[in-house]
Amino acid sequence: MAGKIPAPFIDELLNRVDIVDLINSRLPLKKAGKDYQACCPFHDEKTPSFTVSREKQFFHCFGCGAHGSAIGFLMDYDQMEFVEAVEELAAREGLQVPREKGQKQGPDYRPLYATLEKAAQFYCSQLRTHPDSQRAIDYIEKRGLSGEILADFSIGFAPPGFHQLMDHAMGDADELKRLWVTGMTTESEGGRRYDRFRERIMFPIHNHRGDTIGFGGRLLGDGKPKYLNSPETPVFHKGRELYGLYEARKSVRQLERLLVVEGYMDVVTLAQFGIRNVVATLGTATTPDHLQRLFRTVPEVVFCFDGDRAGADAAWKALETALPLMRDGREARFLFLPQGEDPDSLIRKEGAEAFRQRIKSGAPLSRFLLDHLAIQCDTDSTEGRVRLAERAKPLLNQLPEGLFRKMMYRRLTERVGEQITGSSGTPSGKRMKVRPGTSLSTMPPVRRAIALLINNPACAQAANLPEEWKSLDLPGIPLLKELLELLQSQPNITTVALLERWRHRPEGKHLGRMAAAMLPLPDAGQEREFRDTLENLSSQSGNLEWEALVAKAAKAGLNEQEKRRLSELSKKKAKLSSAKVGMEKP
């Protein structure tokens, strides 16, 4: 997608999303007065200090200082980029993310997606109509796949011949170029281009929006490689994508668990038997990007491997990748199949219910980690138990701070018979603590005015607000002017929408901390306090101007306009002094 996301769209998106519902879908919240609470997911704590306000549509932790909008929560909790978080929220609300037109635009990949979708449709049609497709149909029928499953996964057939897909482009030079860019064609040593996929069952790969981004192809007959994937392209990255994830999310309304298998056909066959929560890596080991994507979708991931040495080695690599991501609330399990079986063959032998039971009984990460290490150590001897502890500690130290890490050390202690403790380092990126109940009276006037505007944008709509303060040369005055002008021109902007406008600016984090402060005044009191603060600043401006005019009068004299201005300022000073004396009398 090209271009910047318009600010009004982000405002509207944040108006539609309920941050309480969003956070509660990932982190159980409990009602606490008019707000909601939980133990903070961003640092280790026993007493809840993580607060979510439905009124402000804002979260804040008084322990570590984490705070933000629904967008900020997805960025922090699910490790999303800003654009990805906006797209995720938009998908929840059934909205299409618009883009602004401008000179500084990113690449527009929509034509590439369109070309790949045309290729997927071409392969589907070839499975139905091509004279040589019978071999593919025989293979599919042998696997027991239904027409419904073929349609769900858009499975097709790449016919024999070196230019079938290219010929389908009908000489369109731009389309042929896009086939090259998306890896659908390749090139001989002599520089001649031809179709990459030939005589293969074709499995389209989709991103989280359902766009076709690449293909996997299974060869019919002899030859190598048996499975061939699209190469890395601008829209396809094997280390990030998971086959079947889009189909799983589409088929199961509330996913709680995902099974990770090795092959396309494993995913499709399990789906044929009614097990739809299955994905496959694309010929690569599980990467951190894979796991981030999985844990954004579900709290529990089950890795499925063959029961041989290669399967055990692959499982251990997956465990090492998962450790830094295993924060509280996430779960990883490891399922090892009998020797010589894969998910496709085993479910045909024992049926769907038995296979589901296997998934549920997969070994938890905690057990697999310690059992795997214990095999390499003689835990009947003191020396072996010491070796087990020394091998386990570097792995456990990779776990994020939290209850799961503490319990893993407790299990290690039980295994070796001695108290084992982990490093007590501060979690990386820990935020500065922010105290609740920040007092307005202790804030400098400019900061107080900004805090009031952030917490109650309606303050900007008050009539006849003082303006003399705008000439002050003080830190924060330009920001205060910008905030006030924006809110006066766009009166419907909320606190969280306002903060998002400043997300990528240096002042953003300071505004967020002000929004997190629990101001002790009701809305009406805040509006009165805001006006008084601007009047106080305007008084400072008047005093400075009065002093400058008096000094000029003593040295060089004043013109008529300056004399009138000095008279006005002197009257104001006298009026304020009288009011102050009146307030001080008993």
Written overview of the protein:
The protein is α+β, with helices and mostly antiparallel strands and 586 residues long. 48% of the residues lie in helices and 11% in strands. The protein contains 24 helices and 16 strands. Strands 1-2-3-4-5 form a 5-stranded antiparallel sheet. A 5-stranded mixed sheet has the order 13-12-14-15-16. A 4-stranded antiparallel sheet has the order 6-9-10-11, with helices on both faces. The chain is globular. The model is unreliable at 424-437 and 579-586 (pLDDT under 50).
List the helices and strands and how they pair.
Elements: H1 7-16, H2 19-24, E1 30-32, E2 35-38, E3 50-53, E4 58-61, E5 67-68, H3 70-77, H4 82-92, H5 110-129, H6 134-142, H7 147-152, E6 156-158, H8 164-168, H9 173-181, E7 185-187, E8 193-195, E9 200-206, E10 212-219, E11 227-229, H10 245-251, E12 257-261, H11 264-272, E13 278-280, H12 288-297, E14 300-305, H13 309-322, E15 331-336, H14 343-350, H15 352-360, E16 363-364, H16 365-375, H17 382-396, H18 403-416, H19 445-455, H20 477-489, H21 495-501, H22 508-516, H23 523-555, H24 560-584
Parallel strand pairs: 12-13, 12-14, 14-15
Antiparallel strand pairs: 1-2, 2-3, 3-4, 4-5, 6-9, 7-8, 9-10, 10-11, 15-16
